[in-house]
Amino acid sequence: MYEWENLPNMTGPYSATFKNGKKIINYKGNKVWPKIGDVAARKFSPDIAEERLEAIVKEKRFFHLHKIDDAIFKSAVDFFRLLGAEWCNLPLTTLMISSPGEVYAGKKLNYTTDTLPVELSWFGNKRKIFLSESSQFYLELRLLIDKVDKVFSIYNSFRKEPADFCHLSEFQHLEFEGKVGFNENISVFLGLLRHITGYLIRHNRKDLGFFLTPGEISSLTKTFDKKNIAVLTLREALQLLFDATGDKAYREFSLRHFGAWEEIKITELLGKHVLLTEYPVLQIPFYHNGKKVAPDGLRLAENADLILYGYRETVGSGTRITDKKVLARKAKEFNLPLADYGYYLKMRSFKNYKKTSGFGLGWQRYVQWLLKMPYIWEAAHIPRGHHLPRP
To answer: Which one has a higher pLDDT value, 10 or 144?
Structure first.
């Protein structure tokens, strides 16, 4: 029905088109990789891992990627230090998971079969535990310490989902939690993105230049300025998509029909990064605070996700529930065993507990967007997907 032609040369690797009744994500190319039509068609395969060792030795791009990774770490730590946020050493194994699954129309999902984290056997115990898919619970716990107000971590996260062009099964998260409000939290992660990107332009221009043209590098200098970020609700985004495509699926107020193609397309329609707010509270992790009730009676979350221009959601953020009883009810709605979340609920009982907000920034997603890479596994020297890990 609809087809978009002559799209602007956007920051970011992708464009979203509609052709012959099919939604297609196209890769626009950079100095290393040529254009690719329907980039999502290529699957992550065991051959990718098998070939990586030789590629790391022979291909110069891995040296430049190494330097960029090193600069991201240094600049991120520097930013958090200047912010007054303190580093936390945290566990990678847990019984508490932040993304047990989504709940549509009030339907509960089974905790044991619909979880996203990777399960582990632990020293012969009958019950299995999980590899952490976020450090958020434990960052919140650290904030119970008196005079500790802002904390961060840079850790591996694990998701039980197959790798594809924009997902890895194991990746790195830059996570922050602080005794800050919703808007201040947004300011922190936008500040972090500005700081990292600015550092790379100043100190790693040669490394960026291996992948990007001088013009593309210059376009990064002000990419996270306020004027280049559109703020809108999910309901408004779905209306824009309906107006552009006529697809009645977008009449449903749900994340069910808001995937990779829609994220890319909404940035194209607005010509900016998109800060998307007010998701249905039962379709995102259970700890998100409910902000208000929509006219149709659905509860809305106090959350904000950043979708990068020509790409996908790269930062997820929100404000946490403070009321212990409300949190217990939410956990029950998500069919979570309350015994496993006793520590998290008990946190709210301490006198020095304060409301917090936080975010997680996907490291490889940022790199893939920054360098306009076709596949997220190219943003990792040793990518981990759903096949046997090699090397």
So the answer is: 144
What is the Cα–Cα distance from 199 to 183, expressed in whole angstroms?
A: 24
Question: Which domain, by its residues, includes 176?
Answer: 14-379
Q: What is the CATH number of the domain that holds 133?
A: 3.30.930.10
pLDDT higher than threshold 80 for residue 3: no
Q: Provide the token pair at 103.
A: 């709940």
Tokens 């217990």 correspond to what residue?
Answer: 328
Specify whether the CB–CB gap between 355 and 324 falls below 8 A: no
Overall domain count for the chain = 1
- How many Cβ atoms are within 10 Å of 18's Cβ, its own excluded? 17
What does the DSSP 8-state code read for residue 280?
Answer: B
Of the candidates 199, 195, 221, 231, the one whose C-alpha atom is nearest the C-alpha of residue 307 is 231
Cβ atoms 65, 32 nearer than 8 A: no
Which residues lie below 8 Å from residue 284, measured CB to CB, with a gap of 6+? 102, 255, 301, 303, 318
Kindly report the pTM of this predicted structure. 0.94
pLDDT band at 115 (very low <50, low <70, confident <90, very high): low
- Could you give the CA distance from residue 106 to residue 57 in angstroms, rounded to a whole number? 52
Task: Find, among 35, 32, 34, the residue nearest to 7 by Cα.
Answer: 35
In a domain, 184, yes or no: yes
Q: What single letter denotes the amino acid at residue 123?
A: F
What is d(CA 37, CA 88) in angstroms, rounded to the nearest whole number?
43
- Give the tens place of pLDDT for each residue, 321-378: 999 999 998 888 888 888 888 999 999 999 989 999 999 999 999 999 999 999 999 9
Show the tokens assigned to 32. Answer: 């290393």
